[in-house]
């Protein structure tokens, strides 16, 4: 009886200990769960020769090989950037990190933030409160209080008509205006878009609201990894519900629609244009030619031409396709690893002091005002544990119609493809990577204890004279 009591006690204690160890196993972090549903930029290998510090230097940056085509001389925008949408390589840029008002191009960040949380088949009956606070002079698609809309219709109102009323309703469905602002700020930070400060999700001019040509390109590239985003941004015309049937709406991106005397750009995918009196004209545009997909951003052309933003984007796209394989990247849209993020001031100073051993990029004579990334308190931003490196390293899955793809790089996944083995957000770095080592250790230890207890019980039962 004594032996039986001891062995049962040992077994129970061991099982309890093993169970306790299993309970201690870490659950998936919220950031890891969120990474499964949010569109992420396609992954690519390391960018050969790309020097991120170059993009913090003012002026034009390009590193052409002998015989490469020259940059177009008619680009008057305060800031612009040309990048390979698949690899994230920045081929050329001017004042890429200069903080400027983004106007409605900020809706791309709104879309990549809110799209994963709102089913396109869901319906919502609009209230007066949903539409409260729309800025004076805002572009509208014509949302009517009391009417029920599909989420898909509202997104078409955002992408085609740049409707701030549609943004208001979708933001209300996404947890509210203030919550959406917070989500967008966090999304930008995780993507490594540290020049951006969101005040109004629709891009309406507000004090302190800024972005950059670099950040807008990051948002556009992230959007191209979502099938829904591509479908909406590449739609030239659609029908929108009214109080008496439907009416037609047209995409305000004239490179896509061909309106206003602007010739359509061959192979254009989308993405988003914008205008406010403070921001001037802004544009994010993506196009495919052959096996290459390029992304350009243009902010506030100064030439005075009525369609300058579109014609300058056209010139930059043409140059990018012509210069394929003939320029060394001057940077990357892929976020820097967290442990390598330095302040822009330090990075730019390293360039000026000749810290790089390879030749510098060529700068033009018009060196715009020097800008540096700062948070609202004036402190330099240096990234953090949840920098977007983990997000951008997601493995690209199935090819997506009309978005990123080509023989020279991985195809973009559809928004529902969650098979990316590397698609963890860097928020898991604090708990996820350590857990990957702790989990097997605890499981093996618990199994060993249970096996030992079972051995003791069986050995005791085999002893002669056991009662």
UniProtKB/TrEMBL annotation:
SUPFAM superfamilies: beta-lactamase/transpeptidase-like. It comes from the Bacteria. Keywords: Carboxypeptidase, Hydrolase, Membrane, Protease, Signal, Transmembrane, Transmembrane helix. Residues 34-53, 330-431 are annotated as: Disordered. Residues 1-31 form the signal peptide. One of its GO terms (molecular function) is serine-type D-Ala-D-Ala carboxypeptidase activity. The chain crosses the membrane at residues 437-457. Residues 350-377 have a biased composition (Basic and acidic residues). GO terms for biological process: proteolysis. Gene3D superfamilies: DD-peptidase/beta-lactamase superfamily. Residues 72-301 form the Peptidase S11 D-alanyl-D-alanine carboxypeptidase A N-terminal domain. Residues 419-431 have a biased composition (Gly residues). This is D-alanyl-D-alanine carboxypeptidase.
């Amino acid at each position: 009886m004594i032996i039986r009591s001891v062995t049962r006690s040992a077994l129970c204690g061991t099982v309890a200990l093993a169970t306790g160890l299993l309970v201690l196993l870490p659950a998936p972090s919220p950031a890891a769960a969120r990474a499964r549903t949010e569109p992420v930029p396609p992954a690519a290998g390391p960018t050969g020769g790309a020097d991120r510090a170059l993009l913090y230097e003012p002026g034009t940056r390009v590193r052409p090989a002998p015989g490469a085509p020259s940059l177009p001389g008619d680009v008057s925008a305060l800031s612009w950037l040309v990048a390979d949408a698949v690899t994230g390589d920045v081929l050329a840029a001017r004042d890429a990190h200069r903080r400027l008002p983004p106007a409605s191009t900020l809706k791309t960040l709104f879309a990549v933030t809110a799209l994963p949380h709102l089913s396109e088949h869901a319906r919502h009956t609009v209230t007066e409160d949903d539409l409260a606070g729309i800025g004076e002079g805002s572009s509208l698609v014509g949302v009517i209080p009391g009417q029920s809309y599909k989420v898909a219709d509202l997104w078409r109102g955002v992408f085609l008509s740049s409707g701030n009323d549609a943004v208001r309703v979708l933001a209300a469905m996404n947890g509210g205006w203030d919550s959406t602002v917070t989500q967008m700020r966090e999304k930008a930070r995780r993507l490594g878009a540290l020049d951006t400060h969101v005040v109004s999700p629709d891009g309406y001019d507000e004090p302190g609201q800024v972005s950059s040509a670099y950040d807008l390109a990051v948002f556009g590239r992230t959007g191209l990894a979502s099938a829904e985003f591509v479908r909406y941004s590449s739609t030239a015309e659609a029908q929108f519900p009214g109080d008496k049937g439907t009416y037609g709406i047209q995409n305000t991106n004239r490179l896509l629609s061909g309106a206003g005397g602007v010739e359509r750009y061959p192979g254009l995918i989308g993405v988003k244009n914008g205008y406010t009196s403070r921001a001037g004209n802004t544009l994010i545009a993506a196009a495919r030619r052959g096996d290459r997909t390029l992304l350009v951003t243009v902010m506030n052309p100064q030439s005075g031409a009525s369609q300058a933003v579109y014609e300058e984007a056209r010139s930059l796209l043409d140059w990018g396709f012509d210069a394929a394989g003939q320029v060394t990247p001057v940077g990357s849209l892929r976020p820097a690893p967290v442990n390598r993020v330095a302040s822009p001031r330090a990075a730019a100073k390293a360039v000026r002091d000749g810290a790089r051993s390879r030749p510098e990029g060529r700068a033009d004579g018009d060196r715009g005002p020097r800008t540096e990334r700062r948070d609202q308190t004036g402190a330099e931003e240096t990234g953090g544990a949840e920098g977007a490196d983990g997000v951008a390293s997601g493995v690209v899955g199935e090819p997506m119609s009309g978005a990123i793809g080509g023989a020279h790089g991985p195809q973009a996944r559809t928004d529902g493809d969650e098979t990316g083995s590397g698609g963890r957000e860097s928020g898991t770095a604090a708990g996820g990577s350590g857990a990957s080592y702790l989990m097997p250790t605890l499981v093996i230890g618990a199994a060993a204890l249970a096996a030992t207890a079972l051995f003791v019980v069986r050995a005791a039962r085999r002893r002669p004279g056991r009662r």
